[in-house]
Design brief:
- This protein is α+β, with helices and mostly antiparallel strands and 380 residues long.
- The protein has a single domain, classed as L-amino peptidase D-ALA esterase/amidase.
- It contains 7 helices and 19 strands.
- Strands 5-4-17-16-13-12 form a 6-stranded mixed β-sheet. Strands 1-2-3-6-9 form a 5-stranded mixed β-sheet. It has a two-stranded antiparallel sheet with strand order 7-8.
- β2 and β3 form a beta hairpin.
- α2 packs across α3 and α5 packs across α6.
């Protein structure tokens, strides 16, 4: 039981009132969708459960439903591990079958097991079945659960994420504006030496390119301050000059964090093409400065919401796919939206004090605008 002083926050699609990277004049490519978020891909829903308790609990869960929480229809999916010092469960069957069956859940490193089991319990409680591996006498499934390490701000060995928290994130999911920064699984994360967390962005292709949408959601906890690039400028250490003197040296000078990137699209792609999309997230990450250090778990998953009902077919079924020669705009959109999602996570995050008194400062927004103007990279 949690006591009265505990703050528990359930966020579905609360209004996004914080500034975002574009609001600070960051130069970014491409045309975003209406919400500039992964939910611009029709059907996608996102929910968060944020746990901020006492002095040492700074964690949570984020859920991404490809077709919304009411649907059990799998989507074509694929994943890619840029650097595997991390975990994403359920990927063996994803690779084997080509289907992402259920939501993508993101949490902290030591809560992967409870989140996985809690989703299974939620299915049983709700009388729901997955879209694959259903038998006459029951079902089995392999939930997709990914993680990044929040032990700098969160008492990660306290195992504070519980099954009701997972259920809350699953059920809070909606298609409205997605809260960013210190929310859900990203609550206690650190990115490029500044406060990190959850971020999202989208791109809409032109009619000539098919009119499709690509959306990205990240849980960013990667990189060192010296690596950070914004608008192509290597200004991480220059931004740190705006912080209190004692905080200008980061806790870790090298990249020992991680990032989970979820890419969604409504473009009709087959599993091998979706996997190609997941690999392009690496290039968006690189635009922000990361080189995927040895201690970083940089794992990406992608899916296409086209070809509804393909997993349920009992006989050969026809599916649609884009020609490979037409994929370049989708690749471009993935790279652009990944870069912006990471920056949105950092811009949306707030300074946080947590476990053992560690304090991680937010990206200094006003200083960022000054530096962009200094180098003629500021967009009005």
């Amino acid at each position: 039981m949690r006591f009265a002083f505990i703050l528990l926050v359930v966020v579905s699609a609360g209004a996004q009132t914080k500034p975002r990277a574009r609001d600070l004049g960051v130069m970014l490519e491409g045309a975003p969708g209406p919400l500039n978020a992964i939910v611009d891909v029709a059907g996608v829903e996102v929910g968060h459960k944020t746990l901020i308790e006492g002095d040492s609990v700074r964690t949570g869960v984020t859920a991404v439903w490809p077709r919304g929480k009411q649907s059990s229809d799998p989507v074509f999916g694929g994943f890619f591990s840029q650097n595997g010092n991390g975990d994403m469960t359920g990927t063996h069957w994803l690779e084997e079958s080509g289907f992402l069956d259920g939501p993508v859940l993101i949490t902290n490193t030591h809560s992967v097991g409870v989140v996985r089991d809690a989703f299974l319990g939620w299915l049983v409680k709700k009388g729901r079945k997955p879209g694959t591996n259903v038998l006459p006498f029951g079902f089995y499934t392999y939930p997709i659960v990914a993680e990044t390490y929040d032990g700098r701000l969160n008492d990660i060995n306290g195992f504070h994420v519980k099954p009701p928290d997972v259920e809350a994130a699953l059920e809070a999911a909606s298609s409205g504006p997605v809260a960013e920064g210190n929310v859900g699984g990203g609550t206690g994360m650190v990115c490029y030496g500044f406060k990190g967390g959850i971020g999202t962005s989208s791109r809409r292709l032109t009619a000539a390119e098919g009119g499709y949408t690509v959306g990205v959601l990240v849980q960013c906890n990667c990189g060192s301050r010296r690596q950070l690039r914004v608008g192509g400028l290597p200004i991480g250490e220059e931004l740190a000059a705006a912080l209190p003197v004692a905080s200008r040296q980061p806790l870790y000078p090298e990249d020992v964090g991680s990032i989970i990137i979820v890419v969604a699209t409504d473009a009709p792609l087959l599993p091998h093409q979706v996997k190609r999309l997941a690999r392009r997230a690496t290039m968006g990450l690189a635009r922000t400065g990361s080189t995927s250090g040895n201690g970083s778990g940089d794992i990406f998953i992608a899916f296409s919401t086209a070809n509804a009902g393909a997993a349920a077919a009992a006989a050969p079924v026809g599916v649609r796919m884009m020609p490979n020669d037409a994929l370049n705009p989708v690749f471009d959109a993935t790279v652009q939206a990944t870069e912006e999602a990471i920056l949105n996570a950092m811009v949306g995050a707030e300074t946080m004090t947590g476990n053992r008194g560690n304090k991680i400062y937010a990206l200094p927004r006003e200083r960022l605008k000054e530096v962009l103007k200094k180098y003629n990279r500021y967009v009005q």
